[in-house]
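Kindly inspect what follows.
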Amino acid sequence: CFRALCCKGPPPPRPEYDLVCIGLSGSGKTSLLSQLCSESPENIVSTTGFSIKAVPFQNAILNVKELGGADNIRKYWSRYYQGSQGVIFVLDSASSEDELETARNELHSALQHPQLCTLPFLILANHQDKPAARSVQEV
C-alpha cells in the first residue's frame, strides 16, 4: 500500500526509567542533570527540596528525582526512594575529609536501605577538574 510506504507513523515509545539522584550539597547534582538535559550552566541554583528532570536519550528516557543535599533535607531522602529503578550518587571529589566522610556515611546508608539495596548504583566522583580532587582509588 502506498500509504504504508510514505507514512511511517509515530516512532515507537522509548522505555522510561525512574532514578533518584542524591549527594551532599555542592556535589554537582544539579549541574550534572543540567548538562545531561543540554541546559545552560548559567544561573544554576542549589536544589532546596527536590526537582524532577526527564533526561532524554536515544533509546530511553530517565526520569530523575534530584534530592537536595543539605543537612536538614537528607533525613527525608528515603521518602522519595519508592519506585526508583536506579540511584545516582554524586560526591565532590575535592571536598574536605569531613565532608567526604559524611558522603561515605550517606552512601552506605543508601546502599543498605531496603528500597535501594537491590538497585544499580552509579557513583560519580565529581569535580575532577579541581586541583584538590581525589582519584577514584582515594575516594
